[in-house]
Amino acid sequence: MASNTEALKTADGISLKVSLQRSLRRKKRNALLLVAPLFLFILVTFLFPIFDMLIRGVDNKITQEILPTTVVALAKWDPASGQLPDEDIFKAFTVDGQVAAKAKTISRLGKRLNYEKSGFSSLFRKTGRQLKKFDPEKMTTSYKENLISIDKKWGKVETGSLIHRESGRYTKSYYLTAFDLTQNSEGNIEWKDADSSIYIDLFKRTLWLSCLITFLTILFGYPIAYLLATLKAKTSNLLMILVLLPFWTSLLVRTSAWIALLQKEGVINDTLVAIGIIGDESRLSMIHNSTGTLIAMTHILLPFMILPLFSVMKTINPSYVRAARSMGATGFTAFRRVYFPNTIAGIGAGGILVFILSIGFYITPALVGGVDGTMISNFIAYHISTSLNWGLAAALGAILLSLVLVLYILYDKLVGIDNMKLG
Amino acid sequence: MTENNSDYLVRFENVQKSYDGELLVVKDLNLNMAKGEFLTMLGPSGSGKTTCLMMLAGFEPATHGEIYLDNVPINRVPPHKRGIGMVFQSYALFPHMTIGENLAFPLEVRKMGKSERDKKVKIALDMVQLGAFADRRPSQLSGGQQQRVAVARSLVFDPDVVLMDEPLGALDKNLREQMQYEIKHIHERLGVTVLYVTHDQSEALTMSDRVAVFDAGIIQQLAPPDVLYEKPENAFVADFIGDNNCLIGIVTEESENSCVVQTPDGSNIKANKVNIAGKGQKSTLSIRPERVIINPEVGQVPNIFKAKALELIYLGDHIRTRMQVCGNDEFYVKIPNTSHIADLNEGDEVSIGWNEYDCRALDAP
Amino acid sequence: MKTFIKCTLATAVLAASVTTAQAETEMVIVSWGGAYTKSQNEAYHKPYMKEHPSIKIINDDSASEGAAKLRAQAEAGKVTWDVVDVVPDAAIALCDEGLVMEIDHDKMLAAAPDGTLPSVDFGDAIISPCFIPQIVYSTTIGFRTDKVGATAPSTMSDVFDMKKYPGKRALQKSPAGNLEWALIADGVATADVYKELATEAGVARAFKKLDTIKKDVVWWTKGAQPGQLLADGEVVMASAYNGRLFAAIEENKQPVGMMWDAQVFELDGWVIPTDAPNKAEALKYVKFATDTQRLADQSKYISYGPARKSSAALVGKHATLGIDMGPHMPTAPANAKNVLFKDVNFWADNNDELAEKFEAWLAKG
User: Fold this and answer.
1) Is the CB of A196 less than 8 angstroms away from the CB of C219?
2) What is the ipTM of this complex?
3) CB-CB under 8 Å, C102 with A104
4) C329 in a domain, yes or no?
5) Which chain A residues are Cβ-neighbours of C356 within 8 angstroms?
6) What DSSP letter does each residue of B158-209 carry, written as one string?
7) Which residues of chain B carry a pLDDT beneath 50?
8) What is the pLDDT of chain C when averaged over all its residues?
């Protein structure tokens, strides 16, 4: 065989290798065609939006678009000099500003820069209004003085240095804000004052609450899943319906039900007062705080833990435990050494599922979370729909995404993603 | 029973078991196992054999009666304190542990020191020729290897009794036969007491000292393999163990050791009286196919009848021939492939005969 | 595949022909839903459609995400909305971004019956060149009449007085409104509130005052929550939109009272997207819907005040309850003794920063 150097040929004389490759290529093409529709769908509805979000978190083309000549002129100016920019920069700004004011885009830049410093919104609106009426022919002063006469802020170095800082194609300011950082007038990055830093604490709280919720769902879900997996099919099917029942009710309804149950004058407090466990004055605060978020979200996410656990437990051969018992292990040891390790895959799958879902949950914390029970996603929603600061929302979202990815990699290293079983 | 009951290692006394309170799965079981014995519970599925095993292992409580292990009643002893090794059909090797860890497990829970543990694990693995596999996972082993590990694991902690629940059921035929010998040899070498459950009669006959044939929750016969085959005590056992021909008829004559049974077509067959209800009652005659003689000389055997060959199946060492005898179309004869008799053709009429001793008159179904 | 495409095309063509066959212009008007949209439907939409049979008004209830959705539509290049009901902050933001068109109020809107120009009739309510004012509503304080003792709270200082009125308060989870109220309760005159709040010391002063009630505040985010919290007895006092309180008191007969002191006047109005599909029709509609009579009519269905002065005299009785609506208007002289106009331009500049501070303050626990 080894001495046979001549290439093998098929019956019609084509080289065997070529023929094989040809048939493999056909197979590959068919596989590709089968995958293509879903791939396109995912590309358009999932990958592209994520990519767009990542871009949006650093995108800053607005300054260059609205002040094209000013940006070029400003590049020559050194804000650290402490001197106001030259007359030609003010002239460039006046020209750009007039165009932008007529195109009604100037206040858009004002809104953008207002994220960096309060007051820019009205400064640009006011300046735009004046520049629209402005006629350079009739100007008696310099461009610089003219702008300063519109608003004193134009006579400050900080105003120019902020525009200078934010004149690049990309900006890091959204990410800085998302990490409670800020750039001072010299351009150095520093922590925000304690009285206006929120996001790091929010990320910490979100992670902490999500961990706690994941832990609670394991604690409550594990025994239920065990029961379901070991009962007779008829009984376990019935119980399974009870587990799945919450899925058939709207999330909003379930959350509202928790409000009715947990509030100060709610069912649980009323009952506790009625049977005398607590006094009427010391009713428990179980809602509009993190306790409310914990209770409601644990309940809502419980099925996502039970189902993977159940499907994994279902596959565990009951003779494992019997074997362990016959070899001298007590019931507890058999569980700890044999049954439990075999359910880790289910715990991992359920844990990751619940954790990722809870990290991005937002309706429930918004309704029952009060102050200390809100999570980062509530702020993303706020910046998307209320403050319209989509750049910051994108930065927060990207950080959340990378947090999830990091945890996923960590999980892969510790447990191994191949061990994850959803059923 | 003349022996002293306390000589036995395992005793079932009047054990009954019901799962639903209506149906008895095990009906009044009495069974004694001597130390070092290899006893097989053989029976069709649903005959109650596995239930008996589970009661002994402690996974199912007996509904009534008492089980003794080394003269200690164990109904209230939890499984882990019974010191019984067990081999499952599904092997039940722990998938998250290596082979070595699997074997060390029973020693670990007994708080045995590490060095001693390693030594015992090695001995046990060498016993099943898997010494080199200690660091592998069960999923990396073939079915036969996994089964050997399961056997080694059940023995590694030196239990008094090892229970095996259809351990070879998932293996293919060749491997199964090989494993039968291996288990038999291990048993002989270690002298451990084995209670084995199977529905495969050849497995039971190959390995066991004694076989308990189960049907409908009752032991039909408890005997060594040769006795079971040669001297079945009832029609079920005769039919269940080995190839068998059944002829049903009415007892017309009865003497001390023999009787005459008349089949519906009027043939009178002289038979060995084993288990009949009496003259005028129905009886099943059992004749092993290999005990039938083709073209016997007149007077050679008491029973000689005309037979017609209906179907011939060539099986190499012998030819299995279906014949019509005494009005029965399903009468099989094993013709050894050594003589000219093998020249038989379908439709040929021959005379066949058998000894009175080889024809056992048993109870009617 | 080809058949599939043909079928799809046929369906599309059919669908297109059906819509054109109606020969109608469908105008999408976005508002807040619920009782509010109902009042607009009765006062504006129905009479308008009666006058213009070719127009069909489609209600879209997504005004709470109006600004975000409109921006998304504009970015996607497909604006489907014709008229959008917005609060002033959103109007300013959308106007800044050029997403909604600027309005020449005097030319595009109807003058008052006596000939007063719209810019004069609406007056300060035109807070942005893009904004077409519609109603004045106020955020004010409601309280449980059965839980505040003999004397009902009457000033903003009472709301911050935990000794005089113990119990929980519900406030909106937003810096706007609360910071102003804190300063008023701390003794700042309503006219000077924004001057004070523009300084860092003023902001600190406001937060310090809020500190005094912080642990007793339940923060609400949705307009329906304060009414529910009052009804459930969860809180003793709650800031709420006056229309919601009117509903609780007059329609649902809850034991709730209303305090008008330091009520915060806010506006609500229309904007027209720059790329609205039926811009000309939209302009015609808003001219009709904001004339003196129509604005007065709306107050028959909901207790919000018309945004133009000339409408005040025409406010009549509630359409179903038959109550005289005049005294329930936040703009009624008896109610408007001490009023704070929310400075939307101040908040346009400072909301980002103060919202951060507010959240950080909340989180400090």
Assistant:
1) no
2) 0.79
3) yes
4) no
5) 196-198
6) --SEEEEESTTTTS-HHHHHHHHHHHHHHHHHH--EEEEEES-HHHHHHH-S
7) 1-2
8) 88
